[in-house]
Design brief:
It contains no helices and 14 strands. It is mostly beta strands. The strands form three sheets. The chain has a six-stranded antiparallel beta sheet with strand order 1-10-14-13-11-12, with no helix packed on it. A hairpin with a 5-residue loop joins strand 6 and strand 7.
Amino acid sequence: LFNMANTDNPDGFRPVKTISGAPISGMLRAIIPGADDLFIGDPISITAGAAVQAAVEGIVAGVVVGFGSVDDDGNLQALHSGDTMKNWFDTSADVEANYRVIYVPAEGVLFEAQFDDTEDIVVGEAYDLLATDGNSTTGRSQMEIDGDALTNDGDVMVVEAPIGPAYDQTSGTANKRVYVTFVDKQFAAPIA
């Protein structure tokens, strides 16, 4: 029915729905960034109280959805999404103490992501992340799912292959977009 090629445009992970049906906006958390450049859509782990990019076959606390700064009174201010200079955290230019990573926790949330050039995927199977640097022009993650790394201890499990005009799930097509859950989740209480 929808038989056109998928665009090869990895943009990390995007929260699409919760298992419980609760709104995603009520789940947002903020944490201090660590020593990694971070982009919107990057899965993160929390190390020593700070957000770092999740490693392949690592534990995931959540996915970056934005960035904020702390004003002189200690209040969190969301950074304007139209300002690409504020759409990613640059460890070489930004002062960690003044910024916060805003993320959606991995627990209980389904995320949309793109497979690499792999043509056939299996719902219910686990795959590894394909970790890459983000795009400093758009502020978007470039992470995607490594379809060649179907493993017992994968990072994500494919839960659903959505259908519709934006999704070509035809066998033999690459760059499919799927809904996944992270396999190894890290619980972290909100830190402001």
